[in-house]
Amino acid sequence: METWAQILASGQKQLQDAGIAEYNLDAWYLFEHAFGISRMQYFMCSVQKAEPTEEALKEFQDGIARRAKREPLQHILGTQEFMGLEFEVNRHTLIPRQDTETLVELVLAEHKEKDIKLLDMCTGSGCIAISLAVHGGYAHVEAADISTEALKVAEKNGKNLLSEREIRFRHSDLFSAFDQSADKFDIIVSNPPYIPSDVIEELEPEVRDFEPRSALDGTADGLFFYEKLAEECGRFLRENGSVYFEIGHDQGEAVEDLLRTHGFKDTKTIKDLAGNDRVVCGRWQSV
């Protein structure tokens, strides 16, 4: 009979042979998830004879096999941490990434007031909208997406993570389901598809083959959705309302230009922790 250490080592070896860069860490997360053994417990029992249930052993082995085929670890575990919160994810949503926390943190830093009406366009898993609702305590938060499957995930995350506050989720192709006269926001945020179409095939298999193409593909130059957002956001913003868009590392200047062309002032580009351009923001002035 194998020890716990041998079971873990076997999984690590399979992932290493499959070319997984972080094979040690990924195997550990799958081990912990399947067997419910914490790191401290593992250090105490690693050389002991392992007596897992058949179900738990199969879960671990299946998880290793799926990861070896380059399925994202987050899809196998079903969750991803973002802004200190645990979000459910699946193949219908982008996996929340630390880069996107730059956008959330910027909004929180620049808008301390609570009486704010905020919209998250292209919400996906709901990680941006829900994090802003939880940490910002804003009076009214809405989130929209064209994908009905993504909205199911976002709504479930909202129910799991928001005890008192509620978010209104809308099925909408950008602003198609919104009323210009009735729907006015103080802040509009978005992490739209922004990867140029021909670049997608060069991405890691975990992204290229498993995350939704519709949430990645920004068409030929990656700017299609920024053009639409720059053109339409002003009609749904109150005077001096603000927009915050996540961008690709080389899109800051182009997105700022689009915002200025469509009447936005005080545009700026903010870098993430790695020093890459990550967020473009601007303030709406109708005159």
- Name of the CATH class of the largest domain: Alpha Beta
Number of extended strands: 9
Question: Which fold name corresponds to the CATH topology of the largest domain?
Answer: Rossmann fold
User: Average pLDDT across residues?
Assistant: 96
Strands of the largest sheet, in order across it? 5-4-3-6-7-9-8
The CATH homology group name of the largest domain = Vaccinia Virus protein VP39
Q: Runs with pLDDT <50, length 5+?
A: none
Q: Return the string of H and E elements.
A: HHHHHEEHEHEHEEHHHEHEE
CATH architecture of the largest domain: 3-Layer(aba) Sandwich
The amount of beta strand, in percent, is 15-25%
The helix tally amounts to: 12
Biggest beta-sheet profile: 7 strands, mixed
* Rg value: 21 Å
List the helices and strands and how they pair.
Layout: H1 4-17, H2 23-35, H3 39-45, H4 54-68, H5 73-77, E1 79-82, E2 85-88, H6 98-110, E3 117-121, H7 127-136, E4 140-145, H8 148-161, E5 167-171, E6 185-190, H9 197-200, H10 205-208, H11 224-232, E7 237-246, H12 252-261, E8 264-271, E9 277-284
Parallel strand pairs: 3-4, 3-6, 4-5, 6-7
Antiparallel strand pairs: 1-2, 7-9, 8-9
Helix pairs in contact: 1-2, 1-4, 2-4, 6-7, 11-12
